[in-house]
């Protein structure tokens, strides 16, 4: 930052401290962050739109099917080049990376995240990558929120709140659904829903929606006005749909983790690009509706135009046969998860949110068509089941049932379908939760003990920095040291009452406590006869730096009854953690959380 800018910022901060309360300034920042998140989303949508416009020229229309194979590979190649040559940094999945920053980095998000996804996501999606823009929008907004908080010297708790505001703003701007956006921020980012945090979320959400209206007008991504009311007679079908979307959500999650693990075995990014690019191109050639985000599929199905949703396929199929249409819709639902994850594996940048909705819409519509054409005299609303299918997949895959309910209710302009929304989302979420403990966003974080939840005690432990509670000022003994040397060089010079014993490779062998030598320390006849290997013993437990979370460490203290435990880092002795220091750090962090 130039000197003059720093000077102006310093003067502003001094003026702020004198004239604006902390709470008032948080409200102002939440409006600013909402505006910035809204702008980021608008830019993402427009860049993607303009890239797609290039491919709607008459020249490209003549080779449409062939280009479905080529374009995604070109887009992935451009993203690969930008990552390798310009950014030279990793771009993670937007929401997962933001959750990690909240739980382990005190909400500090690097500045490059502001523009990284802003450039690479439109290239991935605009060229046909089968991913969404919601994740990148959250990534851009969260980076803006984090850096705005750092610029104005806000504390950690406020920084995390502003990240939540940015996430709500991105969601509100994308779908023009401010209420669902607030619930999304609370449900996905585990924000405290106290009044102090609710008002900034409201302000950010409204600010983002207004920004979206200013630059995009009344245009919305999902255009639908509810015409068919909820029929009580359809409840049984909605229960079955809940089960179907639950199974589909488990499938979606398993496919995501399976394909992700498959690509991880290739260390070369170029090899991932080659394998993934060919796989995506092949899928898009045979199933063109998988191209891009998939809003066309959802909107056409909601309008009842399944022919436009399916589009032109390279096969000569009789689309007047409804069972062929149903089979194609189920194919879209099945392969959307595969195409999306393959895009990620090949190096593309995008989100999971929109593909989830696409899969749900195709599945819900196909389910309704089966009911209407099975020959048993039933007739249900295909548009309603399309919407409810989206809810079921969102609730299951994202583990966000409340977001799913309110998003679909809000974009339909009413709450006529509230009962079936609740039925399907609850069943789908419960079933998926049973088989897949965490969502796509959070499973890896949860496995590493890095996931922020609504459990405040667990969150406090998670954000504690292990390096700040490790003490390294212990006098180290070697196993061959004699008792006399131990007393002279260690006991006499240390205020500690225990001494780690390590070998020449600095591997931890055991510990000698003051109580272990107290009864012989004045017996000079033993000074040259007894060495450390005779006196040392195993400690009550061992903390592995790379593996044990703070929650694990607290459990070790509880189960062992010890007051001090050794820390092993990369197989070597590193230091000790004392229970008293850990509890002191915990209490201080708890105070910060509850301020």
UniProtKB/TrEMBL annotation:
The keyword Transmembrane helix applies. InterPro entries: CBS_dom (IPR000644), CBS_dom_sf (IPR046342), Cl-channel_core (IPR014743), ClC (IPR001807), ClC-type_chloride_channel (IPR050368). The chain crosses the membrane at residues 21-43, 63-82, 112-133, 160-186, 193-215, 235-252, 273-291, 346-367, 387-408, 415-436. The keyword Amino-acid biosynthesis does not apply. Pfam families: CBS (PF00571), Voltage_CLC (PF00654). It is a multi-pass membrane protein. Its main location: membrane. Residues 470-529 form the CBS domain. Keywords: CBS domain, Chloride, Chloride channel, Ion channel, Ion transport, Membrane, Transmembrane, Transmembrane helix, Transport. CDD domains: Voltage_gated_ClC. SUPFAM superfamilies: CBS-domain pair (SSF54631), Clc chloride channel (SSF81340). It is found in: Membrane. This is Chloride channel protein. It comes from Flavivirga spongiicola.
């Amino acid at each position: 930052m130039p000197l003059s800018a720093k000077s102006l910022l310093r003067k502003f901060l001094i003026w702020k401290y004198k004239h604006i309360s902390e709470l008032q300034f948080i409200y102002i920042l939440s409006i600013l962050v909402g505006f910035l998140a809204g702008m980021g989303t608008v830019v993402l949508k427009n860049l993607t739109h303009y890239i797609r416009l290039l491919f709607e020229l008459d020249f490209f229309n003549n080779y449409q099917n062939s280009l479905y194979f080529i374009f995604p590979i070109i887009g992935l190649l451009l993203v690969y080049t930008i990552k390798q040559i310009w950014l030279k940094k990793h771009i993670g999945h937007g929401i997962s990376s933001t959750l990690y920053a909240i739980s382990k980095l005190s909400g500090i998000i690097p500045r490059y995240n502001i523009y990284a996804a802003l450039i690479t996501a439109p290239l991935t999606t605009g060229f046909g990558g089968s991913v969404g823009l919601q994740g990148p929008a959250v990534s851009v907004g969260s980076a803006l929120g984090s850096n705005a908080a750092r610029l104005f010297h806000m504390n950690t708790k406020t920084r995390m709140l502003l990240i939540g505001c940015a996430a709500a703003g991105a969601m509100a701007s994308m779908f023009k659904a401010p209420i669902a956006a607030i619930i999304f921020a609370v449900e996905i980012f585990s924000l405290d829903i106290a009044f102090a945090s609710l008002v900034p979320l409201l302000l950010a959400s409204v600010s983002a929606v207004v920004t979206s209206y200013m630059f995009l007008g009344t245009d919305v991504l999902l255009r639908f006005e509810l015409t068919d009311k909820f029929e009580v007679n359809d409840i049984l079908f909605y229960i079955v749909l809940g089960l179907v979307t639950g199974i589909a959500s488990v499938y979606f999650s398993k496919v995501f983790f399976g394909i992700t693990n498959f690509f991880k075995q290739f260390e070369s990014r170029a090899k991932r690009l080659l394998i993934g690019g060919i796989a995506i191109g092949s899928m898009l050639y045979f199933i063109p509706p998988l191209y891009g985000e998939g809003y066309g599929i959802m909107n056409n199905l909601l309008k009842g135009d399944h022919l436009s949703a399916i589009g032109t396929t390279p096969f000569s199929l009789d689309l007047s046969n409804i069972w062929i249409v149903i089979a194609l819709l189920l194919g879209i639902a099945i392969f959307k998860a595969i195409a999306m994850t393959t895009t990620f594996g090949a190096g593309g940048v995008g989100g999971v949110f929109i593909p989830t909705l696409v899969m749900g819409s195709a599945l819900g519509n196909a389910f309704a068509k089966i009911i209407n054409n099975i020959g048993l005299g039933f007739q249900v609303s295909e548009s309603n089941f399309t919407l409810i299918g989206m809810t079921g997949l969102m609730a299951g895959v994202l583990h966000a049932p409340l977001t799913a309910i309110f998003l679909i209710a809000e974009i339909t302009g009413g709450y006529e379908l509230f009962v079936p929304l609740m039925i399907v989302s609850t069943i789908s979420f419960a079933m998926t939760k049973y088989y897949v403990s965490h969502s796509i966003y959070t499973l890896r974080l949860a496995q590493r003990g890095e996931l922020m939840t609504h459990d405040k005690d667990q969150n406090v432990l998670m954000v504690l920095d292990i390096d700040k509670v490790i003490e390294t000022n212990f006098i180290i003994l070697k196993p061959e040291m004699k008792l006399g040397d131990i007393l002279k060089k260690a006991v006499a010079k240390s205020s500690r009452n225990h001494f780690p014993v390590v070998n020449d490779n600095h591997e931890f062998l055991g510990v000698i406590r003051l109580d272990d030598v107290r009864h012989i320390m004045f017996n000079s006849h033993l000074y040259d006869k007894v060495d450390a290997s005779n006196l040392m013993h195993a400690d009550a437990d061992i903390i592995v730096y790379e593996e044990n979370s703070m929650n694990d460490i607290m459990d070790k203290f509880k189960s062992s009854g010890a007051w001090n435990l050794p820390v092993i880092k990369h197989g070597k002795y590193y230091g000790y953690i004392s229970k008293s220091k850990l509890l002191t750090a915990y209490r201080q962090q708890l105070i910060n959380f509850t301020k």
